[in-house]
Amino acid sequence: MTDLYTSSIEMVEVSPRDGLQNEKAAISTADKLVLIDHAIAAGSRRIEVTSFVNPRAVPQMADAEAVCAGLPMREDVTYIGLVMNQRGADRALATGRIDQLGAVAVSTDTFAMANQGQTSQGSIEAASAIIASARAAGKTGQATIGASFGCPFEGEVSEDRVEAMAVALAAAGAIEIGLADTIGVANPAHVARLVARVGAALAPLPVRVHFHNTRGTGLANVWAALGAGATIVDASIGGLGGCPFAPGAAGNVSTEDVVFMLERAGTATGLDLSRLIAANHWLAGVMDRRLPGMVAHTPAFPKILTE
Ligand code: ZN
After folding, report:
1. Residue 44's domain spans which residues?
2. Ligand 1 centroid vs 285 CA: distance in angstroms?
3. Structural domain includes residue 110
4. From ligand 1's centre to the CA of 243, what distance in Å?
């Protein structure tokens, strides 16, 4: 078990991709780059900047190459591009600005078919090929298992299945395996059990977790995951997010809410809460609505956090 009171964890900022991909109104490339600047200013050192997918399927990501062309030149920041297939991997690598490819495998056939037009097994093979492409290009590859805790179409997902997928993706050369609660149905007991189990099967390869707060269990699930040995957490500024192919999917856990919880509990995140709150307020202005993250709408506590 990780000692949460003395440890530090790594956070991956996913707002430029997962956060924005489900938004109906087009967000300009310039605003996406400002969002990335906000994340870096807040201390983010790993950022999922875009996805290289069919623009007809996900119009919000149609400017992937333009986003990459505008990324700040930072040796200390790892830029992640999400890709679903070889074409996406080729596009991402061709930009010359993506440090890491993120691949997705999906736990059930029905969701894999809706999300990327292939079976679950097919998605493992595609993810493995993407990781191989990244390595061949001198980059790194990681994989996320979509619907690890429940499927929007098939319901309960077998823990044996998720563990076997994680082992297969690790064997393909992934630097870490992410467990994603794509539709926000996980509970902390399930999270603790599955993270511990997958972590034991993968050790010393790290487990990353990706939670959506669809039913309000997001922060509890983060806490449970870290207690069970996960060391990397995906989160999205403002709590934006959703999946165009998963009915009813809602936002990711908000970066600023996760940071408030963990830093107050003594777990270092490397992120600056006041800058994240400023980023939430800026992004709310762009979106012209209040964002789901909660801490940004509350008085500072303790006061020094915003002074
Ligand atoms: Zn997600």
Report:
1. 10-306
2. 23
3. yes
4. 6
CATH number of 126's domain: 3.20.20.70
**pLDDT for 306:** 52
Per-residue model confidence (pLDDT) at position 303 = 72
pTM: 0.95
Q: Report if residue 75 sits inside a domain.
A: yes
pLDDT, averaged in runs of 10, over the chain (307 residues): 69 96 92 98 98 93 98 98 97 98 97 92 98 98 98 96 98 98 96 98 97 96 96 96 72 97 95 98 95 93 66
CA–centroid distance, residue 253 to ligand 1 (Å) = 9
Domain count, the chain: 1
Other C-beta atoms lying within 10 Å of the C-beta of residue 118: 18
Establish how many alpha carbons lie within 13 A of residue 204's alpha carbon, considering only the half-sphere containing its beta carbon.
0
How far is 253 from 10, CA to CA, in rounded Å?
15
92 within some domain: yes
pLDDT at 4: 56
Measure 147 CA to ligand 1 centroid, in angstroms: 9
- Please report whether residue 153 resides in a domain: yes
Q: How far apart are the CA of 252 and the centre of ligand 1, in A?
A: 6
In the numeric block, which tokens belong to residue 257? 């809410």
The whole-number pLDDT of residue 6 equals 53
Residues taking part in catalysis: 243
